[in-house]
Amino acid sequence: MIYLITALDAEARPLCEYYRLKRDTSLPYTLYRNEEIVLVVSGMGRTNALMAVSALLGWRIPEEKDILINIGICGAPSEYRIGEALLIHQILDGDRRYYPDILYSHSLRETSMRCVDVPQSVLSDYPVDMESSPIFQAASRFFKLHQMAFLKIVSDHCTPELVTKEGVIELLRSHVNSLDTLISRLSAVQKQPPLFSTDERNTIEVFKTHFTKSQGSAIDDALTYFRLRNKGEFPPLNPLIPNSKRERSQLLEELIATLTA
After folding, report:
1. What is the CA radius of gyration of the chain?
2. Domains in the chain: how many in total?
3. What are phi and psi of 88, to 5 degrees?
4. Stated pTM of the model
5. How far apart, in Å, are the Cα atoms of 96 and each of 25, 93, 133, 137, 251?
């Protein structure tokens, strides 16, 4: 299944037309779907995005090879062209940083994005939106880093008062092919053979029993990152785990830093 997330109805309309999505009333959110795609319109802002994505993924829990794409408009500094499609490789949210893994070839411009609380009328150092961070946070409970993508289309140079519904529809309509290509590339990554053998996976699962569920997810992400960039190699996972919670956290931090270096 392909999960698409937009903030606005105007962003969703061209996608519904292109993929022939039909309205579904299973959730208290605007929802469209066909046999392969489900799209939810979250509404603007952090709370709406977090709640809508959590509801969607709780309603239909993703499977191993499913993917999620957040697509929508963004404000951006003047060096970004209006109508330009951007693929986000880092989401900045205050002191927090989130990194979707881009493990496929593409022709889009990669950039960081800053997630903000209100529409921006002052030029930022990076493109800005209001939903990417909470979408990442909610989705990362269900998806690995390489199963998610954030595709943003520049709608304005931090002049949100000039953005119109009709303009948003046209911007999204002009990039349905970009989305279609991204879906194909991202889906192809998921169809590759399993990264770890049965014995390796058993070793990983035993190692993870010494850590919390969220720490175990971080270990999985780091090991996936390492294996994808170091084909055939498998890092030794030290079976001697400290009893101290603080020392275990330090060990985990060092391990993840080594795997993702």
Report:
1. 19
2. 2
3. -90, 125
4. 0.77
5. 35, 5, 9, 11, 21
